[in-house]
Design goal:
- With 103 residues, this protein is mainly alpha-helical.
- Helices cover 86% and strands 0% of the residues.
- Helix 1 packs antiparallel against helix 2.
Length: 103
């Protein structure tokens, strides 16, 4: 009888460990799925990005320099906005994953 009780206890512990491992694997899968969505969205946004070429003309160097600086500033702002969007999307996906885990 004691051997049977010990076996039940051992199997119960083993089952709990398997359930914990399964929960951890499920959490990781959801995290990876969230990251995949973010990177996919980022890739799609990059495909839509347009490239602007500026050829310098002799004369008006000051005006051209000013325009180039404005374009560089705008590009930096867009890059930061894109990074913020990526972080917000990742946060949203992680929250969704956490909700799935807690079910």
């Amino acid at each position: 009888l004691q051997a049977l009780e010990a076996e039940v206890k051992r199997l119960t512990l083993k089952l709990r460990e398997k359930e914990r491992s399964e929960g951890e694997f499920r959490r990781k899968i959801l995290e990876y799925a969230a990251e995949i969505k973010v990177w996919k969205k980022k890739y799609e946004m990059q495909k839509l990005a347009a490239t602007v070429e500026i050829s310098e003309v002799k004369g008006n160097e000051e005006e051209i320099s000013d325009i180039m600086e404005q374009l560089n500033n705008a590009a930096e702002k867009l890059t930061r906005l894109d990074a913020v969007k990526d972080l917000k999307l990742l946060q949203s996906e992680m929250e969704t994953a956490l909700k799935e885990i807690s079910k």
